[in-house]
Amino acid sequence: MKQVLILNGDIDKTVSTGFLINAYTTGAKNAGATVREIAIIDLIFNSNKLFNNRQIAELEPDLQKALSAIRQSNHIVLFCPVYVDHIPTKIKGFFDRLFMPDQIFNAQQQKIDNNFSGKSARIISILDEETFKDWKASKKTTYLSIKKNTFEKCRISPVLTNTIGQLHSLDNHYSKKWVTKMEKFGAQLI
């Protein structure tokens, strides 16, 4: 049975992000998967990466639980809103603390094993209105940092991506189209 981990990277936990997550969850559960969700904003941890990778403070309990959930999953789905072309600090800190290579704990000199080979991922990049207009004009991707420098460096493959504009209403054609796609993506589990 597939184990799916949904990482909610929405710092405001908006209704529209929840709407997309629920659709993805429905598709995955209908395909027989077990789904677990972590809202990164609810985790309590220091989002600053300390000591330039020479030494890292011991993982806080919430990060230990998140790392355990990542290890148990087969497929990771990140729902990450992008606000005027940046990723919120807490979300970046989450990735810096758990996904960056060669991080070492305190005195025991134990490394975090962040070789996640055998796992796949999907990044759902949700753009605010201004960023979406820029994206439509230039098609410049907003997820490459997470895809290339985070997931793929930790040997997660394949990493699929989707870019979505802001959902102004949950009842319009655009929103309904993306709900259908999310259910389909969840059912495919890749």
Structure, explained:
- It is a single chain.
- By secondary structure, the chain is of the alpha/beta class.
- The protein has six helices and five strands, in the order E-H-E-H-E-H-E-H-H-E-H.
- Strand 1, helix 1 and strand 2 form a beta-alpha-beta unit.
- Helix 1 packs parallel to helix 6.
- The longest helix is centred in the first third of the chain and has 16 residues.
- It starts with a strand and ends with a helix.
What is the CA-atom radius of gyration, in angstroms?
A: 17 Å
The dominant shape is globular
> What is the H/E string?
EHEHEHEHHEH
The CA-CA distance between the termini, in Å, is 14 Å
Report the mean per-residue pLDDT as an integer.
Answer: 83
Helix content: 25-40%
| Largest sheet features | 5 strands, parallel
Q: What structural class results from the helix and strand content?
A: alpha/beta
Protein topology:
Elements: E1 3-8, H1 15-30, E2 34-39, H2 61-72, E3 75-82, H3 89-99, E4 120-127, H4 129-138, H5 144-151, E5 159-164, H6 173-188
Helix pairs in contact: 1-6
